[in-house]
Design a protein that fits this description.
Number of strands: 0
Oligomer: single chain
Distance between the termini: 26 Å
Strand content: under 5%
Helix content: over 70%
Length: 67
């Protein structure tokens, strides 16, 4: 006997997967921008690196949830 589809779980999975995809895409764009930028001070660089780290943390948390 097949169980009923759980729409709430399916939607939550879709949202997590979508957020993970967006995080990877944003991190990729940020890295590309870093490669093109010439920074006048380290504060700008630190801000961009912090943003990339936040995006990677989103991806990491997604994979932790899958374990």
């Amino acid at each position: 006997m097949m169980s009923k589809p759980n729409i709430r779980d399916d939607f939550s999975y879709f949202v997590r997967k979508n957020e993970t995809y967006k995080a990877v895409k944003e991190a990729s764009i940020s890295i590309a921008c870093l490669q093109d930028d010439n920074f006048e001070n380290t504060k700008e660089l630190d801000k961009d690196l912090e943003h990339i780290q936040k995006q990677l943390t989103i991806v990491e948390n997604y994979f932790k949830e899958q374990e």
